[in-house]
Amino acid sequence: MCAELLKSDKGSWIEHALQKSGKEGKIMLGNFQYCNPTKLYFGEQSLTFLKEELQKYGPKVQLSYGRDSIKKNGIYDQVMELLKEAGKTVFEDPGVMPNPTVEKLYEGCKIARENEVDLILAVGGGSVCDYAKAVSVSAYCEEDPWEKYYDRMEEVDNRIIPVGCVLTMVGTGSEMNGGSVITNSERKRKIGHVFGENVFPKFSILNPVFTYTLPKYQMVAGIYDIFNHITEQYFSGEDDNTSDYVMEGLMKSLIHSSRIAVADPMDYEARSNIMWTATWALNTMVEQGKTTDWMVHMIGQSVGAYTDATHGMTLAAVSMAYYRYICPYGLQKFVRFAENVWGIQVEGKSKEQIAKEGLASMESWMREIGLVMNLRELGVTEEMIEGIAEGTFVMDGGYKILSHEEIVDILRKSME
Ligand code: NZQ
Ligand code: ZN
Question: Per-residue pLDDT for 126 more than 70?
């Protein structure tokens, strides 16, 4: 079939394939280009490679980090030592908060611009990496970066400062993607811009040991963030797509390792598998050839804009209501999820029953590892529901395009 399609002179081969199959939209993959430019250094010795990377950039480094975690666990001292040995002038940029704000972004741009820094080194979790990418595209932006990148979603047309990451919290995949999520508390909006490969970190250092000091709450929030990145990309399409098989493997590995890490947070094997799965879940590889859903993230981000709650927990709190709601619209995939990810026995059961059991297994795993399963626990009140629904961007790549009323309903169910 392939040779025949390639020889076709009646339009592109994918159009031809769609006509031949008679099932529009069900053929795997389209035409795409793929490139991921981030160089990764993984493992217990990975920080030593920072020195090598630093040599590629000029002398001025903006060191962006969060609050006190890297000072308490010693990562700050190790990084400073390497910066000193490499002869760098360091401009410190501390205080990047979880869910970084637009005000902090303006502050970071000022440091970058006034000192004409050559590299932004982000040491922290997704918030610090996202923030560093936002500063990198905004420092030389001639207009308000919130308006340009987050409101109007425009691409970058000015100088970009290179970014490198030393990751200390696992979940977002920010270490190997172009995502950058910024919160505008005044406008009650939390918005992600997915920048192109010119904004991806140039390098990222992934040492699983650096994640040992994460509080359990953050560790499990990160684990669910990973899981949800996968389900957001898995629950779409009806075609036979290699990416779905890859994602089933990633989910199984994550479920397995999460149980070990919850029992023993210092288990290197489990922590390293979780770290590696996080990177694969959102380094843009598995989304190729798929439409992808992302509605849990859209609702979760709007919850975050109202509550400043931990990202992974906002996703956990709305997930079961969301997936149970869309299940009938993508029933076949939910059956596959139940069977291939959760090992549900299918003999003698209806499709609805199998799908329901799969979702029940997912829920019990979520409760077992200690996720927040109710929006009230994150500070959501009845009065916020309309505004959260209003602030939710509606995507059209999943099994059901949600109306405002449906989002309100899912939010209400997540409060029960
Ligand atoms: O501020 P410090 O003191 O460093 O404490 C942090 C923070 O309080 C702490 N922490 C990090 N590493 C630690 C540690 N504590 C002890 N030991 C360590 N080794 O953990 C807390 C949370 O950190 P944060 O960076 O906020 O977490 P996460 O990595 O989950 O990042 C969340 C942000 O990323 C965005 C989220 O919306 C949110 O703003 N996302 C980015 C994405 C992307 N770039 O593609 C996709 C995601 O879906 C997500 O939206
Ligand atoms: Zn996420």
Answer: yes
Contact 66 CB / ligand 1 (< 6 Å)? yes
CA of residue 85 to ligand 2 center, whole Å: 36
Q: pLDDT tens-digit profile of 146-187? A: 999 999 999 999 999 999 999 999 999 999 999 999 999 999
Name the pairing type of β-strands 189-194 and 179-184: antiparallel
User: Which residues have C-beta under 5 Å from ligand 2, the single-atom ion?
Assistant: 225
In this prediction, what percent of the chain has a pLDDT beyond 70? 93
> Considering every ligand atom, which ligand is closest to the CA of 126?
1
Query: Is residue 214 within 6 Å of ligand 1 at its C-beta?
Result: yes
C-beta of residue 344 within 8 angstroms of C-beta of residue 338? yes
The angle at the Cα of 47, spanning 41 to 48, to the nearest 5 degrees, equals 100
> What atom of ligand 1 comes closest to residue 98's alpha carbon?
26
Q: How crowded is residue 377: how many other Cβ atoms within 10 Å of its Cβ?
A: 12
- Cβ neighbors of 8 (< 8 A, separation 6 or more) are 16
Q: Please give the structure tokens belonging to residue 401.
A: 């395009």
Instruction: Find all residues with CB under 8 Å of 29, minimum gap 6, and list them.
Output: 14, 241, 288, 289
Ligand sitting nearest the alpha carbon of 177: 1
Q: Is the CB of 201 under 6 A from ligand 1?
A: no
Q: Is the pLDDT of residue 23 over 90?
A: no
- CA 170 to CA 306: how far, in whole Å? 24
pLDDT tens per residue across span 25-58:
445 577 788 999 999 999 999 999 999 999 999 9
For residues 164 and 62, what is the distance between their CA atoms, to the nearest angstrom? 10
